[in-house]
Amino acid sequence: RSRWGRRRPWIFVGSLLLPPAMAALWAPIGDWTSQTAKVWFVIVAHLLWTTVASIVAVPYGSLSTEVTTHVTERNRVNILRLGFATFSGVGCTVVLQTLIKAFTDGAISSTVLYVSLFAGFGTFFSLPLVLVAIFTHERAPVAEHVDHLDLRVVVSPFRIASFRHLTWMYLCPSLTIDITTSVVVFYVLNVVYANPTVFSAVFAAVSLVLLPLLMRVVGTVDKARIYRVGLPVSIVAVAGIALYPRHTFVWPVYVFAGLFAVGVAAAQIMVWVIFPDVVDDGELQQGARNAGSFSGVMVLVRTAASAVATFVVGWVLDLTGYRHVEPGRPRPPQPDSALWGIRLTMLIS
């Protein structure tokens, strides 16, 4: 607790730590001779980045329930922030792919790439969070007594049935996006020879178009129904992407990508629109508004599940005989087993 609130000091400090954490994450250590030193540096850098990201994400998620106590305002605020978060996330992916392509083509040096990544992206990520910490207000009531640190806060949210359901609803679209993001570059470069930047841009455009539609219907249509309605379309679309034939025109893949985004993006946005309602339910059942522990557990579960999913993608590629690109050499042809491994990973996601 502080004169600035419970959430904003964490967001402010975390925002200042993001650029140095990103600098460590993207550090150019390719010329190090020790493979062991590389591995340990990457492990420590990822732990640092994940810690800093959690310092921001947990109070930021909690703050989404506390900027207003009015249900309609809360819904609109969450749709706006999540819609723009999805759009900016995909936009960052497009810029990142462009920078890496420029580097691999020799158009920019490793120094320019490194500075662009940690200075450019670091500023882009941290500056809005600084503004959030300065200008946002926490309007939800604060408990009269301070709770002591207790590991039971990790378990207590799961006693609420609505939170258990919400966690599953959160993991499904999130893991789908994580797996798809991990494998899409392998898919477009080896299976259908499409443009990964266009693929990502289509997803971003659909997310942006969804914003006004969701803003209009969220006050009159059940949120769980909005969550469900686009998912069958996304399932059919991802099947079309995964099974699309090679050596033919690629524009249908981009159409499928747009249809895929309809259900997945709407579902992911709806989860955090429903989240304040689940916090309200927890307050009614537990007698305390534990938005911090609810948000923390969701971030913890998502991070752990994402790590496992990313590992499985790499494991499937290795198991199916994927041939990695050697520096300075042309992209090798992939065996049919690797191509089917990529397709099935897309389909199962």
What does the model show?
It contains eleven helices and no strands. With 349 residues, it is mainly alpha-helical. The chain has helices at 8-25, 35-63, 71-104, 110-135, 161-190, 196-217, 223-229, 231-242, 251-286, 291-319, 336-348. α1 runs antiparallel to α2. The mean pLDDT is 85. Helices cover 73% and strands 0% of the residues.
Any chance you could write out the topology, listing elements then pairs?
Layout: H1 8-25, H2 35-63, H3 71-104, H4 110-135, H5 161-190, H6 196-217, H7 223-229, H8 231-242, H9 251-286, H10 291-319, H11 336-348
Summarize the structure.
The chain is mostly helical. Helix content is 73%, strand content 0%. It is globular.
Which labels suit this protein?
349 residues; mainly alpha
Distance between the termini: 41 Å
Uncertain spans: none
Mean pLDDT: 85
What is the radius of gyration computed over CA atoms, rounded to a whole number of angstroms?
Answer: 21 Å
Q: Quaternary arrangement of the chains shown?
A: single chain
The arrangement of helices and strands along the chain is HHHHHHHHHHH
Number of helices: 11
Structural class, by secondary structure, is: mainly alpha
Mind summarizing the main beta sheet? none
Shape: globular
Proportion of residues in extended strands: under 5%
- Number of DSSP E strands: 0
